[in-house]
Amino acid sequence: MTADIIFQQLQELGNPAKAAHSLTFFKTTPGGYGEGDRFLGITVPEVRVVAKGHPKLSLSEIEILLANPYHECRMCALLILVEQFKKADEEARRILFDFYRARTFYINNWDLVDLSCYAIVGEWLADKDRQPLYAWSRSPSLWEQRIAIVSTMAFIRRNDFADTLQLSESYLSHPHDLIHKACGWMLREIGKRDEKTLT
Question: What is the reported pTM?
Fold first, then answer.
């Protein structure tokens, strides 16, 4: 199976009206955070169905999908990576983490970050040095900064809150609402488990 075939499958599901709505929803106009992004007009559940049909897609083909200018192609690539990571052994997980880490340039909108980073980055770093998160938090890339905080969801689910709190504090004066919203989301997740931690 090739990336080209998957792209064709996604194109067949495209909906011009939904694509037009996504252009506005994801702020694709000049100066917007999603400037220049393109959409086929496919729902997330529809993309998930396509992704589930290709669980063994090679990394070389996944990279082709990631580099596709259409948002849903990048989403499909990331969903395949997440499923591969869930089923991988330790060495394969290392390879998938390194692959993801080297290609954050393509993970360039909040939904792409949110559906992939904690399931790959967070799960990989759960029992390892978390310095990659702090490096991302200092990155000029808004999306790498969001990866840093949302990845801590994997730690929160283990009742490990320290990195979430530290990163959230470092972002207190951040200029972008997408970072504040991500921090608020993670802090609410902590609050569901231990309200005292937030007082």
Answer: 0.95
Quickly state the pLDDT bin for 1 (edges 50, 70, 90): low
| Pair 22, 50: CB distance under 8 Å | no
pLDDT at residue number 196: 81
- Per-residue pLDDT tens digits for 168-183: 999 999 999 999 999 9
Q: What is the residue extent of each domain of the chain? A: 1-87, 109-198
Tens of pLDDT, residue by residue over 65-120, are 999 999 999 999 999 999 999 999 999 999 999 999 999 999 999 999 999 999 99
Q: Are 138 and 101 in contact (CB under 8 A)?
A: no
Greatest alpha-carbon pair distance for the chain in Å reads 52
Nearest to 51 by CA among 80, 25, 89, 91: 80
Task: Tell me the CA distances in angstroms from 84 to 37, 66, 87, 112, one per residue in order.
Answer: 26, 15, 5, 16
Helix 90-101 vs helix 59-66: angle between axes, to the nearest 10 degrees? Answer: 30
C-alpha dihedral, 30 to 34 to 40 to 42, nearest 10° = -140
Phi-psi region of 141 (alpha: psi -120 to 50; beta: other; left: phi over 0): beta
Q: What are phi and psi of 38, to 5 degrees?
A: -125, 150
**Rounded-to-integer distance, Cα 114 and Cα 167, Å:** 16
Return the CATH number of 1-87, one of 1.25.10.90, 1.10.10.60, 3.40.50.20, 3.40.50.2300: 1.25.10.90
